[in-house]
Amino acid sequence: MLRRSHPSDMDHDEIETLRREHPAWRLLASNNAALVLSFLQRVFIDANASNLPGAVLVDELDDELYALRQRMGDDVFPRRPQAYLDEWADAKHGWLRKFYPPGGDEPHYDLTPAVEKALTWVADLETRTFIGTESRLNTIFELLRQMVYGANSDPADRLTDLYRRRQQLDAQIERAELGQVDVLDPVAQRERYQQFARTARELMADFRQVEDNFRQLDRRLREQIAGWAGSKGDLLDEVLSNRSGIAESDQGRSFRAFYDLLLSADRQAELTDLLDRLHAIETIDDLDPRLARVHFDWIDASERTQATVRQLSEQLRRFLDDQAYLENRRVFDVLRNIESNALRLRDMAEPAVAMAVDDTRVPVVLPLERPLYRRTRTTPLEQQSIERGETDIDASVLLDQTFVDRDALAERVFRALGARRQVGLHDVIAASPLDHGLAELVTYFGLRAPGVDVVFDDDARAEVRWRADPDPVDHDDETADPEERLADIPRVTFARHRTEPT
Question: What percent of the chain has pLDDT over 70?
Answer without folding.
Answer: 70
